Amino acid sequence: LSVFYGIMFDAGSTGTRIHIFKFAQQPRETPRLTHETFKALKPGLSAYADDVEKSGQGIKELLEVAKKEVPMELWKFTPLVLKATAGLRLLPGEKAQKLLEKVKEIFQASPFFVRDNCVSIMNGTDEVPTMAFSVLSHISGRLGDPQKRSVGMLDLGGGSTQITFLPRTEATLQTSPSGHTTSFRMFNHTYKLYSYSYLGLGLMSARLAILGGVEGKP
């Protein structure tokens, strides 16, 4: 039995969350998700658009959580990534890029395994399937089991709302509008999904549009 970990930062519009996944794998079998550690901090990275240096405090705090959960001897083998969603997509490009560069700088100074593309902004199509959908399906054991019906997701975020599901037939994918389908690969299998993100229709964005006002600062 082999055990390994993966660390995912979800930089949303209302907060930054860390997911620490623990997997176990028997020889010649698909890895099983055996545990997840979760912690969230507010506000989101986008709240620090005008104070980039301050944005790093929360990232460092969440990295300390990862150091406690992942055995030290596995740190250098444990991949570390951050995916930003609607909060950063709504920022001017230059401000969003500076925030990402700050996070990458902190990641590269950490003891975990970091690639050049460890920090990025997800487009609307990728936002759900590569994160929540794959985790939920894996936990429920519904991917790869033809006897079980797949799950679908409606994700109400702060800056956007997403819908994602695994279609029963190829016809659904073929007749979907351009930009409403995607695919992701997990454990040597590719899954084709219907997925679309409605930018600006998240809880906080809709509230601001209806009631007026300005976004708060940390």
What does this structure look like?
The protein is α+β, with helices and mostly antiparallel strands. The protein folds into 2 domains: 2-121, Nucleotidyltransferase, domain 5; 129-207, no CATH class. Helices cover 29% and strands 30% of the residues. It contains 6 helices and 9 strands; from the N terminus they run E-E-E-H-E-H-H-E-H-E-E-H-E-E-H. The strands form 2 sheets. The protein has a 5-stranded mixed sheet with strand order 3-2-1-4-5. It has a 4-stranded antiparallel sheet with strand order 6-7-9-8, with helices on one face. A hairpin with a 4-residue loop joins strand 1 and strand 2. Helix 1 (52-69) runs parallel beside helix 3.
Query: Which secondary-structure class do the elements indicate?
Result: alpha+beta
The total domain count is 2
Uncertain stretches: none
Helix content: 25-40%
The number of helical elements comes to 6
CATH superfamily of the largest domain: ATPase, nucleotide binding domain
| Biggest beta-sheet profile | 5 strands, mixed
Mean pLDDT across the residues is: 84
And the CATH topology of the largest domain?
A: Nucleotidyltransferase, domain 5
